[in-house]
Each structure stands twice: as C-alpha cells, then as structure tokens.
Amino acid sequence: MIDNTEKLGAHEIAAWLRRHPKFLQQFPDLALSMVVPREEGPAASLASYQLEVLRDKNRELTRRLHELFGNAQENERLAVRTHQLTLALLKQDNAADTVRAMAAALAEDFNGDLVRIVLFKPIAGLDDLDWLQTIAQGDTRLSPFRDCLADGEPLCGRLQPEKNALLYGMRAEEVLSSALLPLDGTALVAVGSRDPNRFYPGMGTLFLRMMGDAFAASLRRFDRAP
Questions:
Q1: What three-state secondary structure class fits 226?
Q2: In the chain, which ranges are continuous DSSP H helix?
Q3: 189 bridge partner residues
Q4: Nearest to 194 by CA among 179, 181, 177, 180
Q5: Structural domains of the chain ordered from first start
Q6: Other CB atoms closer than 10 Å to residue 190's CB: what's the count?
Q7: pLDDT digits (tens, 9 = 90+) for 174-186
Q8: Host H or E run for residue 192
Q9: DSSP secondary structure code for residue 188 in this structure
Q10: Are 191 and 203 in contact (CB under 8 A)?
Q11: How far apart are CA 4 and CA 98, in angstroms?
C-alpha cells in the first residue's frame, strides 16, 4: 500500500507557497535550513536567495565586529588616560596644582571646547582664571544643580539654559552639549562642546565617574593636611 498522506501534504504546502511567494522574506531562517538541488531552474533561485541571506548575515556580523573593536579601542584609550590622570593628580603637592592638572587633563582628553570647574570651597593660588569659579554649595546660584548633586551621577547632553549660564557665563550660547560631573561637597566639573552630538544622553559615563572620584579624593588629601 502506498501512503499518500505525505505526498498530499507536500502538494498542499507547495500550492500554499505559490500563493505566498514572499513567505521566505518573513522567515529567512527557514530558507537557510531547506535543502535544495544544485541545478538550473526555480530551485537555483532559492539557492541564490539562501546565499544572499548568508551574505547579509555576514555583513551584519562584520559590522558588529568592527563596532565592538572600535568600542574596545576607545575604552582602552580612556582607561589608560584615566589611570594617567589619577597618577598625575596624586603627584601634585598642593590643592591648586591638583585643580590645574584636572582642568588640563579634561581639555586634552575629551576634545571639548570649554572646561569649567566650580569649587565649593576657596583654594589659595587660583585667582583670575576664566575656567574657574568658587561658589559655596549652599549658594542659591547653585539651585539648578541641586538634584544632580544629590544624585551624584554624571550628566551628558544639552544642559538647561540656567545651568549653561552659570557654568559658561558669556560663552553659554556657544555650548550645545556638555559632560557634567557633580561632585557633592567638592565641585562641579564640566566640559562643553560646540558640537551638539559630542556629548549625548545615554553615552557611557564610567570613566567620567572614575575621573571625578579621583579628583575629589585628591583634593580631600589637602583638607586633612596639617
């Protein structure tokens, strides 16, 4: 006896596929798993389709690998610079030189246009510097920063106008994106850019946080000095 069940089912499937020729576009993984003969005709077009799907996957994998490699290189560079900054801060003999070293490192490493530091306590030897302000943390001028100081997390992106105005003064309108380090009890540290896409919400802030922690810890050494 010949079992026609499978043959009948295959005919029905084939008929359905003829009515839905774009079915494999919705399920490309199915095309990859099908076995087709290596010959001329309609079967050859399906084999070509399988090959094109494989090529697309290969291109996507290659793109992702390049992206991962680029991210790894950038992370390595930032890790090295963060380590170098920490060492540079620890080598300073006084608080004023520590602040100068921090400002210089930020200007060099972040490709920003403006570096700004707002200290919450005065430090001798830091007079008449256009990138530095000293404002007590309880001062009402710092009210726009109250939430971010309490949160302690770096901010990246376009800051609110009142934040920009305090940090950058007369040059506030030039700054279209910023990286802001709120260091509660110590300072506000900002790097501003004329490029609106230089700093953006969602970008990684791990190394920024590490730099901020190193800066705050370095300054606390001199608070304890006799």
A1: coil
A2: 5-19, 23-26, 28-33, 42-91, 95-109, 146-151, 161-168, 206-223
A3: 117, 181
A4: 177
A5: 95-223 (3.30.450.40)
A6: 27
A7: 999 999 999 999 9
A8: strand 187-193
A9: E
A10: no
A11: 86
Q: Which tens digits make up the pLDDT trace of 3-42?
A: 544 455 777 877 887 888 777 777 777 766 666 655 555 5
User: Token pair for residue 134?
Assistant: 């000293």
Sheet holding 155-157, edge to edge: 132-134, 114-119, 187-193, 177-183, 155-157
| Paired tokens of 175 | 């700054």
pLDDT tens digits, one per residue of 149-179? 999 899 999 999 999 999 999 999 999 999 9
Rounded (10°) CA dihedral 210, 215, 217, 222: 170
Return the bridge partners of 155, or none. 180
DSSP secondary structure letter of residue 159 = P
Residue at token pair 């996507």: 60
